[in-house]
Amino acid sequence: MPNELASRLQPIVAEAVTAAGFDLDSFEVQQAGRKQLVKVVVDSDDGVGLDEVAEISRKVSATLDENEHVLASAYTLEVTSPGLDRPLSQPRHWRRAKFRLVRITPAEGAEFVARVGHAGEERVTVLLEGRLKDVHYKSVAKAVVEIEFKQPPVDELKLLEEDASGKRSTPAGQTEAKEEPK
């Protein structure tokens, strides 16, 4: 029942979240005693603050109240933003992780930690051991943001920024590592 209910409610909730200027990152409906627990995770390229979560919560609640015939029972609404441990599974997740360290587990090969640069629709440029490398999303089995307790080195950020803007000149002795699509 909750999965069927979630499939009917998801487009309704997605429309309300999108109208508020955010992305619906995930949506779930669970049975919680006599009530339904409606979990909504929202995100945006600029992040989501507490005031924005409260505003989205009001809009989603109003939308659910307008569609109470679909719920047909009392509900508890939980609206939140994704945590740092959310896997990077879509290009927009990679764009939002720009300049962050990410632990990447490729479908083939050894796991590595790299800093995220420009993220396109099919691949992302990362800085790995001082060299730029293109990583195709299809080749990634799993990727998550690593928590850093200090600011990233300025030279790394500059190199990634120059690469994204097309102004980069590769320093002498350095080469780019390009990963071929599979």
Automatic annotation (TrEMBL):
Q: Which gene encodes it?
A: rimP
Q: What does this protein do?
A: Required for maturation of 30S ribosomal subunits.
Q: Which parts of the sequence are annotated with region: Disordered?
A: 160-182
Record's Gene Ontology CC terms? cytosol
Species per Swiss-Prot/TrEMBL record: Amycolatopsis carbonis
- SUPFAM superfamilies in the cross-refs: YhbC-like, N-terminal domain
Key words, A-Z:
Cytoplasm, Ribosome biogenesis
Please list the residue ranges annotated as the Ribosome maturation factor RimP N-terminal domain: 12-85
Q: Where does this protein chiefly localize? A: cytoplasm
The entry sums up its family as follows: Belongs to the RimP family.
Alphabetically, which GO biological process terms does the record hold? ribosomal small subunit assembly; translation
Any idea where this protein resides? Answer: Cytoplasm
Query: Any idea what this protein is called?
Result: Ribosome maturation factor RimP
InterPro entries documented for this protein: Ribosome_maturation_RimP (IPR003728), RimP_N (IPR028989), RimP_N_sf (IPR035956)
Check the record and name the HAMAP family matching this protein.
RimP
